[in-house]
Every structure is written in C-alpha cells, then in structure tokens.
C-alpha cells in the first residue's frame, strides 16, 4: 500500500471535507461517552441543547466563540507564513495584562478614548510579545516552536508576579487586580445576555484577515514566505520583515482575545483568565485549514462543544473534559481527511 | 564549624534536588533524541508525558505496584508514539501539527480519564511513591556523596540510559541506520533499509521514554497526579535536544544544569527574599530560551528532520 497524489478534487467535494471531518469526530467521540457510562442520545441531546437550545445558551456559545475566533485567526495567520506561533496563549495573556493596566489607570484622560485605548494597547502588547520569537527566529535562528511555547510560561509568571505585586487589588489576598473603569468595558449589545462588542469585532477580524490574505501584497508575500522562504528571499521579498509583521498581526489578534476576556467577561485580571484559548486556537486554525472562514466555522463548532459539554456533564455525569478529547480527535481526523483530498491510497499488488 | 556543616548540607541537598528535577526531563530528552535522530520531531512529547504520568499514577493507585505503573506509562507512551508514527511517518502529515494534535488529544484523555476514575475530591489521592536507595560506600563521601548517590531506582536507570543511548547511536549498526534514516533517508532506502519501519520504531521507542518521564513525576518526584504536573517539561526537553546538538551526552549535561538551577531557584525562594516567587518560577523558562539562543547558532539539525519520506518524492 502506498500514498500517491490524486487528481484535484472538485470544489464542492472539498467543501464537504470539514463537514465529513466533524461528523466523523462526533462518531468517534461516542466511544469516550460510552466508556464514561453516558446514555448516548441523552448525551448528544444535552450537548446540543446546552449550546443551542435556548436564546441564552445560543448567545453564550457566541460569547465563547469570540476569543476562539481571534486566537484561531492568530495561529492561522502565523502558520500560513510557517511562523510556528504556538504562543497565542501567552500573547492573549499579554493583551489582557496590558488592557488591565490601561483599564485601571484610565482615570485622567477623556473617557470615550478608554475603549479604543484598551484595544490598541492590548493588540500591541500581544503583537510585541509575538515579535520576540519572530526576531529570535530570523536573527538568531532560534526554533520558533520552542521559543513561543516557553514564552507562554514566562508571560504566565510575569502575570502572576504582577497580580501578587503592583497590580493586586488593595486589601485583597487573592491574585486579582482591581476592576477596570466602566468606560473601558465592552458594551453588552443584546439585553439579558453577555453578547458583547467582542463578537462583532471577531467577525470583522475574520473579514480583515481574509482581506489581507486575498487582496494585499503583504498577504501574498506572507504566503510566499510560508511556501518557500529561500525562494521568496531570492525573489526579492524581505522575508525577515514579512515574518516580523506576520508575528505582530498574529500576536495582536491573540492579544485582542485577551482584551475581550478582560473587558467583556471578567472586568478584572485573574490568573486563570484563559482556560487555554491560545492552545485551542491552534486546533481551530488547523481545523479551519488556516483559512479565515474555516477558522470561523471551526470556532463555532468548538464553542458548541465546549459550552454544550458543561450541560452534558451536569445532566449525564460524563466529565466535561470530553470537550478536550473531542478537540484532539477533531484535529487528527481533519488532518487525515485533508491529506486524502490531495492524496489517495494505492494498494500495490505484488 | 556549624557554618561549614550547613554549607555542606546545602550543597548536598542542592545536588540531590537538582538531579531529581532533571530526571523526568532526561527520560523525555532521550526519547526525543532517538525520535529526532530518525528524522521525526515529536511535539506530542508534552501530552505523552502527561498521559504517561496519569496512567502510571492510576495503575499504581489501583494495583499498589509501582513497576506496573511505570510499565503502563511506557505502553501508553508507545501507543501515542505509534499514533504519531502513523500520522507523521506513514501518512507523511506535517510533523509539527501531528505532534501538537497528539499533545492536545493526550492532554484531553489524561484529564478525562482521571476525572472519570477519581472524580474531583478536594484532596487528591496519593500513592506510596518510590523510595530513595543509597548506594553503599559512595553515598558516604563527604559533602557530595548523599546528593549524588541517594536516589530513586528510576533515577539510576535514567542516568544509566545516557551512555547506553550514546553507544547505541554512535557505535552500533542499528544506530548508524537510525542516523542515516534521519539524515539521508533516500540513501538508507537505496541500500535496503526500511525507512518507514525504522522511523516508526524510533518514534514508538521514544514515546515509551516520554511516558516513563511523566510517570517519574507522579510515582517518584511526587506521589499524586495534578493536571499541570508536567508544566512545560516536555517543551524544555525539546529545547535541551537542540542545546545538546542531538548528542545524548551533551543534551543530558544541559538537562542536569537546568535541574541544578531549578533546585537553586527553589532554595533561594525558601530564603525569604523580597522577590515574588513567580519570578523564580519563571527563571527556568527564561534560562532555556537564553540557552537556545546560544546553542542555535551552531545547531546541526538532522537533515531529514521534518521531511516526510515518500518513495515517489525527489526530496530527502
């Protein structure tokens, strides 16, 4: 048996691949559900009811999708240029941290500037945190996978040090900051829900990244660097600068996810502000085949799983960590499915 | 006089703790070396360690048998290695992404299974961990004796595995084959070596090492399973492989230095300095990055690393 290139699939069949991958993933996740002793139909019913069953649940799923879309875009944008940014988690924290600092201190400047300020500074913080491994990669040949990963831990501890130090709420013994000012909070857009500004913002970013990828010279160069860095260099592209800018935008998007979690959900910095959105973003980017629209749908699928798993866990006793298992299965299934859009198995008869 | 005794105790304790800090990373590093030498980067390392740690703990918790726990961790590591090999070697998928996929899946499984079997009690259950064994005579050497020669049996095994791995890779025919498969797979294929099979074997073996590295943490270093028990040690191992230029001896030297500094920061923390303990916790990671910067200038990466091997392709 060997693997050989196949004729390109027609577009409509390519579109079906993610759908087939999702269905296969759900089929495989039957196994852990049954092992956990969950009733199958009840489990899936509560999975989807919990995520989509009521207006509030549906809006909560969208609330969950917002950071996932942003970190998914962040990773996809970087991976497309083969800048292996596994550091979205740290960049998200950098964004949240910066938004906290700006959001607390914003007492003496015009209030209407508070919201744009937290967003811009949060974006910059994430971007700059991602620029470090980019510079290390281009100037010093340091492997970006390892450096971005390690920087996640560095940022986590910087945040910890600040939460037990200068940023700690006066009088509190918990690692948490004071609340940010009212004007720096994301407005809630729909009554009786947490549907906030960050959700349309994430959708806008999907469009922006799509636009950069498809319609700008930078998008073209970024992709060219991803396909072949050496050839791009010989072709006259300043690859180092492209990688740096890719990192800035990628980290910025992750930073924005952190701003959203801070300014729309928590209002104050806590050490577990992110339950691993940065890492989930990696899976989402792959599941979305590094395409912004794909990232959007992958994020929606995952937020259904994550939100629904909570309800399922309460009603059936299947541990809510089933969501993490499904994420891993989804990634691997998608990888294999994508492979078979380009290759097919050939049985060699001897 | 008491000052001297205190210093001697400090040094001995530091050496002992430094070695203990390093052991799980040594296992993982050895696993990653053999994997990468055969041309496969396994980013599944962090997840493999976690599932190994969890499995080792659960099996020992259930049976009371420590060796069974270690064995189970190795088997789980091998299974994850096999999955990695199917994805990255047989199907030729991106090694980066396959590895991350393994880590995500294994992390999910570890948390899922632990919650299923143990639930979420306020105090996590514990096992009776490995006991430290003193080597007669040697452990009586003044100052350094106790630190160097009173350890868990797994620790001695890890240290013993380093020269074995070196000899295996550099002095045996199998080692030569593995290195050729990692450097120039097409050459290996031409002389009749089964590239796919060799790579698979190495990834599976490497997985066993990673699993045991994880189990060391839950069965020796600590006696319980916590979700963040690995805490990036897998990623540090990958950095150490680069630091030591894919040479077992040098990589492990780096790991031991890392362990010593880690132990030192713990002790400085205990001295009640006016510095946040998060800063100390951060130091090992910052240090690893600095080490990478220094080492990456002259890194000699196995030429076949990250490149899937297919007969039809002209690369390799």
Strand content of chain A: under 5%
Which value, in Å, is the CA radius of gyration of chain A?
21 Å
Biggest interface = A-B, 48 and 47 residues
Q: Tell me roughly what share of residues is in helical segments of chain A.
A: over 70%
Mean pLDDT level of chain A? 92
Kindly provide the name of the CATH class of chain A: Mainly Alpha
- First and last CA, distance of chain B: 64 Å
Give the name of the CATH architecture of chain A.
Orthogonal Bundle
Shape of chain A: globular
**Main sheet attributes: strand count, strand direction, barrel closure of chain B:** 2 strands, antiparallel
H/E order of the elements of chain B? HHHHEHEHHHHHHH
Measured between the Cα atoms of the first and last residue of chain A, the distance is 10 Å
* Biggest sheet, spatial arrangement of strands of chain A: 1-2
Helix content of chain B: over 70%
What is the domain tally of chain B?
Answer: 1
The helix count of chain B comes to 12
Q: Count up the domains of chain A.
A: 1
The assigned structural class of chain B equals mainly alpha
**Molecular shape of chain B:** globular
How does this structure look, described?
The complex is a heterodimer of chains A (350) and B (316). With 350 residues, chain A is mainly alpha-helical. Chain A is 71% helix and 2% strand. Chain A has helices spanning 11-28, 30-35, 40-52, 55-80, 88-105, 114-140, 144-163, 198-215, 217-227, 229-234, 239-266, 277-287, 292-316, 322-342; strands spanning 2-5, 343-346. Chain A has a two-stranded antiparallel sheet with strand order 1-2. The longest helix of chain A has 28 residues, at 239-266. The termini of chain A are close together. Chain B is mainly α and 316 residues long. Chain B has one domain. Chain B has helices spanning 2-37, 45-63, 66-90, 95-118, 145-149, 153-171, 173-183, 185-190, 195-221, 233-243, 248-270, 277-296; strands at 132-134, 150-152. Chain B has a two-stranded antiparallel sheet. Chains A and B meet through β1, α7, α12 and α14 of A and α4, α10 and α12 of B.
